[in-house]
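Before relying on records like the one below, remember that each one covers exactly one chain. Contacts with other chains, cofactors or solvent are not represented anywhere in the record.
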Amino acid sequence: MQPLDGQTSCDVCPAGSYDDGGEVCAVCEPGAVQPLDGQTSCDVCPAGSYDDGGEVCATCTACGPSQFSTIACTPTSNRSCSDCAPIADCASGLSCSGAGDSTCASCAAGYEPTAGGAVCSDIDACAVAACDAGATCADLAPPAPGSAAGRTCTCGAGGVDVHGDGTDCSYYTDCLELHLAQPSLIDGVYVIDPDGGGAELPFLAYCDMTTEGGGWTLVATTSDDGVTTFSWDNRELLGGDTTLIGAPTAPNLDFKGPGLHRLPFTGLLFDHQPSGDWAMYGVSNSATDLGSFIDSITYPNCPTAANSGYKMLAGTLVANPEVATPAVKLCETDLYFNLGDFDGGGVVVSNCTDLARAYAGGTWGPVWNGGSNGGCHFDDPSGTSFGGTYPCVNCGAASATEGSGRGFAGVLGLNTGAGDVGENYLQMFVRDYPLKSCAEWLAAGATATTTYTLDPDGPIGPVAPFSAVCDMTTEGGGWLDLPATYHLAGAVLATLTSRFFGLQTPTAVTAATNSASTAGILLASTTVPSSHNIGIYLYATDQGFSDVRITWRLQGSDEDYRCGSPNWIPLNGPGYDGGYNGYLATCPAGRTCIQGRPTGSRDLPITATYGADGLVAADLPTWSGSSTGTTSANCARDTLIPSTSPALFIERLLLR
């Protein structure tokens, strides 16, 4: 171009300009470029590019997959990008269209996108791979979750972890089986599985592992907790209704657990607090649950005689029918169910069955015979009930409330705790019936040397069960420790004596401790018989045994202090050779008496240890001899026998 006159040449428009036809090199517009000299036009930058100021249409910057555009790409400007707001644990696919709308397509291991992908949430590994029923699942912190490894499974208390990872837990059928398998367990809440891995799930149960052999499963609690639960309207809670109440972790509050309907039982235990009084009963000899058992008893139950209920087999409960004050009168310790009200204390069945009477206040469930309204027997059983009270004509709103007596506790004045807060309560436990012997307890899995209930002839036999100490360590265990049994609190010595000894002479049997602090059984002469041939037999009338271990001491009498005279002779005992052979006891017909054949001096007290295996029912370990006076202070006296009479002191006696 040549804008001036008189020029001999034209100027070429440089790069960045063009000849506009008016003799001017015009500058390219923004967004257009002209990289060459002498051009008559500029090139507009195409889409996706921009004028970079160097006569080049540069390609616009592309935002990354986790960025958004803040300035658009135009012919005059490059695109500007900013990072999306981060999403924690996003592995890939983070995107956004602005500063506050980030989304994630793929989360890190152990996480998953939520709806819309706005956040990554921890995968619930417990939902992905469940633990065994009864086990507790804990979701682990990522990155492990998202698979079975992303959680821990812990078998419930008392369970056996088969594989060590909580995915296969084996539970015992009840508290007794658990107690026998793990005798060190204390009272508390454990998981049990009555059908042993069957269709019904395991459940939590409170177990009493100490009372009367241990292994009791709590099935119900009636509590002064300010809540009405076991009313007449709700009586089927103690019958066929399987509704659950409360929790085993709060055993002092109203409670009803699955065990009431799922555990076959033959023994019942009632434990009252805060008194600590308890009572155990043998109730059923069939494989049924307690709910079904209660349902099977027609209401009203009208026994025709006192002391005709289920007998208390063990416990601290004591009746006091002689007390004049009605509020503290327990007529007997027998247990009844679904009692009607005889009303007035007379055993008149027509009163009991007449439910239209104004004060026909019977009750449902376990109940005791108490004189809550002045009389024995069976008067106003609502005062001694575990369950609901019959809504008689003049009994007010009894159908909607529960009894306040807490079983036997009310009439005995045992509810001394604060009201409405669960301090006064009566618990009901079930267990299988006592086994016949210590050897059976051992075979069932018991390992602790402690107190057990034995029932030699079973639940339907006439012989009552009794408490005994079982030695589970000596020579393989399974021994009945008779001296320790005699020393049990509450042991009825007359019953034990008749069960284990046959006495041919007036003899007092006591639980005694000698000067060396040895606790044993003392059989001491109470009279001066004329015969020298007296006998004491170890004769377990209903507790058979085939092994015996005995350590004993014997002393006779010498009223004239003549140690060599025939006025006295220590008793001869099994396995002992000494004394005088002429004073052996006459053996009962049909029996074989095991006693010494004395050959030596009879002037000293006898001490001996005897053990025998393979005894048969007709064998009688026997002591015999003379008892003609008081014990001498010299040769006849054994200072380790806690008696000054002719006596047998058994320091150790184990039967199996």
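The radius of gyration is 46 Å.
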